[in-house]
Amino acid sequence: MRACIVGAGVIGLTTAWELADSGYEVTVVDRQREAGAETSFANGAQLSYSYVAPLASPDTLRKLPRLLLSHAAPIRIRPTYDPDFIRWGLDFLAACNERMVRETTRTQLALAALSREALNRLTEAQDLSFGLRTAGKLIVHRKPSIFENAKRQVELQAGDGEAQRLLSPDGCLSLEPSLKIPPDELAGGVYTPSEQVGDCREFCRELAERLQRRNSVTWQLGSHVRGLVVRNGAARALDTSQGEIEADLVVLATGAEAPRFAKKAGFRLPIYPMKGYSITARPAPEARPLRHSVTDFDRKIVYAPLVENGRDVVRVAGIADLVGFDRRVDEKRLATMTRQAADFLALDLESDLRPWAGLRPATSDSRPIIGWSPLRNLFLNTGHGALGWTLACGSARLAAEIITGAPPSVRPEWFALKRQA
């Protein structure tokens, strides 16, 4: 059986690995000339298996007027008459209720647990080196009302995810003394000791190198996909700038570009691009090193300790801009995030600062789409939003199980294009 994977980011590469393990001959196609060159390139580096709360929630709904009016909010929405955005927005509003929050949290925790097991097993079996380590994750909250919401989320997840601890402001600063924030600006924090960090781009590079060793895997990088070749109602080949690729199966793993591909194939995906930013910086001289993964919840900024070329660095990532397919780095948005990072940690923001922006593929209900499309032989593995790195290996495992007919590790209907509870 021949499978063609469209997309060489972390979702496409892990899916290629799982299908190759299942006996498929795999071709990986991507418009970039190297793997992991787009949304996987410089993401937040956190592997957040226990923090899967959806963006679509009653709390987000209450904040919506401010998000529409403020230019400095961590989530920014640029209204548009684009029909795709309007449909996505209406679906998003419909998902902003407590029932959907509970349902999405439960399903995401199950997929995250599978992903953690699959990533750790793959890392050990293939001796991958991408800075994976269990650093623990601290989420700090500035507002008492928001911290109360966090407490309810911890209660909601109890028994389904990893153990979490509620901390006082002093407890947060005792756990992570590198933080510069005064205790009177904190309401409290949630700490999950089992959470991990790792460099997604390095993982992609290493996994691509392992895939290149397999005789059953071929590559067509730097190749633009024009569409599908459909015969008798089924996808039979991929039409690319380098010619047609015959396939018995096509897997769509193109992230934010997936809706454009789907539209050409005659159906709609409830995905819209959500632009995020990151910088990679060194700690300031004589600064205490960051020991844990940390999230500044109110400002929607994450901090992850990494090692590059033997030196400590911090990946700072955040912001969620619904501004269409604009991939440009907005200097004002980047400056806001950088200024807030300087208030939070002692960082060297003068030398070797590397800014980046990428498009996260956000579904309206914050849950990925893993399952068959309306077109025969076309499979979907996309829409992971800000959790692509966290959910990649579990999504690939589930995709391979659905495709091959193996017993699924989690319920497939939770992530199908047409959702079921």
How is this structure best described in words?
The protein has helices at 10-21, 58-69, 83-95, 98-126, 144-157, 169-175, 200-212, 258-265, 331-344, 388-404; strands at residues 2-6, 25-30, 46-47, 75-77, 133-134, 137-141, 165-167, 188-192, 196-197, 217-221, 225-231, 234-240, 243-246, 249-252, 271-283, 293-296, 301-308, 311-322, 347-348, 354-363, 369-372, 378-382. It is globular, with a radius of gyration of 21 Å. 49% of the residues are buried. The protein has 421 residues and is of the alpha/beta class. The chain folds into 2 domains: 2-40 and 202-268 and 366-414, 3-Layer(bba) Sandwich (FAD/NAD(P)-binding domain), CATH 3.50.50; 46-197 and 272-363, D-Amino Acid Oxidase, subunit A, domain 2 (D-Amino Acid Oxidase, Chain A, domain 2, 2-Layer Sandwich), CATH 3.30.9. Helix 1 runs parallel beside helix 7 (200-212), helix 1 (10-21) runs parallel beside helix 10 and helix 4 packs across helix 10 (388-404). The mean pLDDT is 93. Helix content is 33%, strand content 28%.
What would you say about this model in short?
The chain is 33% helix and 28% strand. The protein has 10 helices and 22 strands.
Question: Residue-averaged pLDDT, rounded?
Answer: 93
Distance between the terminal alpha carbons, to the nearest Å? 32 Å
CATH H-level superfamily title of the largest domain: D-Amino Acid Oxidase, subunit A, domain 2
Radius of gyration: 21 Å
Structural class: alpha/beta
Number of domains: 2
The percentage of residues in β strands lies in 25-35%
Given this structure, which CATH class of the largest domain is correct? Answer: Alpha Beta
CATH fold title of the largest domain: D-Amino Acid Oxidase, Chain A, domain 2
The count of helical stretches stands at 10
Number of strands: 22
Task: Indicate the percent of residues in helices.
Answer: 25-40%
Shape: globular
